[in-house]
């Protein structure tokens, strides 16, 4: 049962070691938190445990005083709107409750209760001092990731049209009271600017432990990221257990049981895990077990990482893997890869790889090219994944200009670079109606060992110079395309896997992740300077 409770506005408080009483009144009555009388807990940490909130009484507020207007909370990402009010705010105390208006919010309720040392009481209609109440509202048409948080009368109410929004409200509350802080009186209204706020991790070239990935999931959840990309197949390794093709799996690797735990943890934080089996390039680990599938040129020289897409067996093994892992990754997103197929980087693909040219003509007609055959391969893999009801993205250099065969219309562009042969500006994809996820390698690529002129990105540079409109290089695309840019993803690539330990990676990406999500959540110019933003991040941990 969903209830909305609003009770009087009188409040009495005890401040520090002495007693002083105050009346509070707010001009905003939009939230369901209620404002029944409550005795404030002493600020001395040694006496911070409150008595049972059910039996509290408050003395008459005499003499009276007014509180200053509250200040907006300081969180990462920053909240979009805060309506100030007068009052002492809210701090957690043992014995206080987290209650929900809907059983669907049980996971969110249990999590924030455990984090703040409160009692999860489940679905309750009664009102007690100190309550944190989570609720689903009927705000039709609202962003499902939006929420409203009201702090009033010694209570907190977090409501939203969807579970994700309520979860994000609890992340704001957690940050507000971190380190003994107080959630400020008033109303937060908040929602993300972009629906895709991602972090992509290359676990193919470098093995990361399941615990390390789980730690990143918790970090991402607290920062309101909603995607974790896992690139787990490449030339250097195939890093997840396989039942259909165990021969391709590298050591060390994640077991399926470990992946299931990661996926479940991510789901509890409203994070979608986006898997990637890159093809038809970057398949060296598969080729190592099936050398007959390797692409060779007319002189018989092997082409690194590339399968021969004229061979039906190459499609069969990749489809086997795609079908297998669709069951392991139930989220709605999938990355097909499609980048850097080495058959297309030579001056004359048809002359170098006559078997590919012949297969193209056989399937698509006399004028078909190797690019047509490669686009057809991509579309066929999209058909395989689409059967599992997934939305797919492809790296921008997996799309080719001037082909007779066109990429499927529902494929989204993961734009990462403008360095490929025949590179196209982002506007070319946008003007064709494609939706784009921004992986700009100028700002968002953390490449271990810094090869090929890559430099470890800094949070400051992202914070001060990047926006989701800056898709390639440092120049923004016209703002009219803003709606087609779904968001962005910070990416860790492990080209030189031993250049950093996994703990060094965690430290190195800490501030870039915070800067990235700030720019994806709030489209405006940040209110804090970089120095103050970094200090806030250090304070919040």
For this entry, give a set of tags:
single chain; 14 helices; alpha/beta; 7-stranded mixed β-sheet; elongated; about 30% helix; about 550 residues
Describe this protein's structure:
With 541 residues, the protein is α/β, with parallel strands linked by helices. Helix content is 28%, strand content 18%. It contains 14 helices and 20 strands. It has helices at residues 106-116, 163-176, 210-222, 256-268, 284-289, 312-328, 349-352, 354-364, 370-386, 426-431, 459-465, 502-508, 510-521, 530-540; strands at residues 14-15, 18-19, 81-84, 97-100, 119-123, 132-136, 147-152, 155-160, 186-190, 196-202, 227-233, 272-279, 294-296, 302-307, 333-337, 391-395, 412-415, 436-438, 445-447, 485-493. It has an eight-stranded parallel β-barrel, surrounded by four helices. Helix 6 runs parallel beside helix 9, helix 8 (354-364) packs across helix 9 (370-386) and helix 11 (459-465) packs parallel to helix 13. It is elongated, with a radius of gyration of 27 Å. It starts with 13 loop residues before the first strand and ends with a helix. Mean pLDDT is 90; it is low at 1-64.
Write the layout of secondary structure elements.
Blueprint: E1 14-15, E2 18-19, E3 81-84, E4 97-100, H1 106-116, E5 119-123, E6 132-136, E7 147-152, E8 155-160, H2 163-176, E9 186-190, E10 196-202, H3 210-222, E11 227-233, H4 256-268, E12 272-279, H5 284-289, E13 294-296, E14 302-307, H6 312-328, E15 333-337, H7 349-352, H8 354-364, H9 370-386, E16 391-395, E17 412-415, H10 426-431, E18 436-438, E19 445-447, H11 459-465, E20 485-493, H12 502-508, H13 510-521, H14 530-540
Helix pairs in contact: 1-2, 3-4, 6-9, 8-9, 11-13
């Amino acid at each position: 049962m969903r209830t909305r409770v609003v009770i009087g506005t009188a409040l009495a408080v005890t401040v520090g070691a002495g007693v002083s009483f105050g009346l509070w009144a707010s001009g905003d009555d939009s939230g369901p938190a209620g404002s029944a009388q409550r005795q404030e807990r002493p600020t001395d940490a040694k006496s911070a445990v409150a008595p049972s909130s059910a039996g509290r009484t408050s003395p008459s507020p005499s003499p009276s005083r007014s509180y200053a207007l509250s200040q907006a909370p300081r969180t990462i990402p920053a909240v979009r709107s805060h309506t100030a009010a007068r009052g002492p705010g809210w701090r957690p105390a043992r014995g206080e409750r987290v209650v929900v208006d809907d059983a669907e919010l049980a996971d969110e309720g249990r999590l924030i209760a455990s984090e703040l040392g409160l009692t999860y009481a489940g679905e309750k209609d009664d009102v007690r001092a100190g309550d944190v109440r989570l609720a689903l509202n009927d705000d039709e048409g609202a962003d499902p990731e939006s929420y409203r948080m009201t702090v009033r009368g010694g209570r907190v109410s977090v409501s939203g049209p969807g579970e994700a929004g309520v979860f994000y409200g609890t992340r704001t509350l957690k940050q507000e009271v971190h380190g003994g802080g107080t959630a400020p009186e008033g109303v937060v209204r908040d929602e993300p600017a972009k629906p895709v706020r991602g972090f992509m991790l290359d676990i193919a070239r470098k093995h990361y432990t399941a615990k390390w990935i789980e730690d990143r999931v918790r970090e991402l959840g607290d920062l309101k990221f909603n995607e974790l990309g896992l690139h787990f197949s490449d030339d250097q390794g195939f890093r997840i257990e396989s039942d259909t093709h165990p021969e391709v799996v590298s050591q060390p690797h994640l077991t399926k049981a470990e992946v299931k735990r990661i996926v479940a943890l991510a789901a509890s934080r409203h994070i979608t895990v986006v898997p990637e089996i890159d093809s038809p390039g970057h398949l060296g680990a598969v080729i190592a077990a099936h050398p007959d599938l390797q692409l060779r040129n007319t002189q018989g020289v092997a082409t690194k990482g590339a399968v021969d897409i004229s061979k039906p067996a190459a499609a069969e093994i990749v489809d086997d893997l795609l079908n297998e892992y669709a069951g392991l990754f139930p989220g709605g997103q999938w990355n097909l890869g499609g980048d850097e197929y080495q058959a297309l980087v030579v001056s004359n693909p048809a002359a170098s790889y006559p078997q590919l040219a012949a297969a193209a003509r056989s399937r698509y007609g006399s004028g078909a090219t190797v690019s047509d055959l490669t686009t057809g391969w991509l579309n066929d893999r999209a058909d395989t994944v689409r059967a599992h009801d997934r939305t797919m993205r492809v790296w921008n250099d997996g799309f080719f200009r001037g082909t007779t065969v066109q990429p499927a219309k529902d494929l989204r562009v993961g734009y990462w670079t403008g360095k490929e042969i025949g590179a196209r500006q982002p506007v070319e994809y946008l003007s064709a109606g494609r939706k784009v996820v921004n992986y700009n390698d100028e700002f968002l690529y953390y490449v271990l060992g810094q090869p090929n002129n890559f430099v470890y990105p800094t949070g400051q540079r992202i914070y001060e110079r990047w926006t989701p409109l800056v898709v390639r290089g440092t120049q923004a695309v016209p703002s009219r395309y803003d709606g087609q840019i779904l968001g962005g993803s910070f990416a860790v690539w492990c080209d030189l896997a031993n250049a950093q330990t996994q703990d060094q990676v965690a430290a190195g990406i800490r501030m870039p992740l915070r800067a990235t999500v700030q720019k994806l959540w709030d489209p405006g110019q940040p209110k804090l300077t970089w120095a103050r933003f970094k200090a806030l991040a250090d304070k919040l941990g």
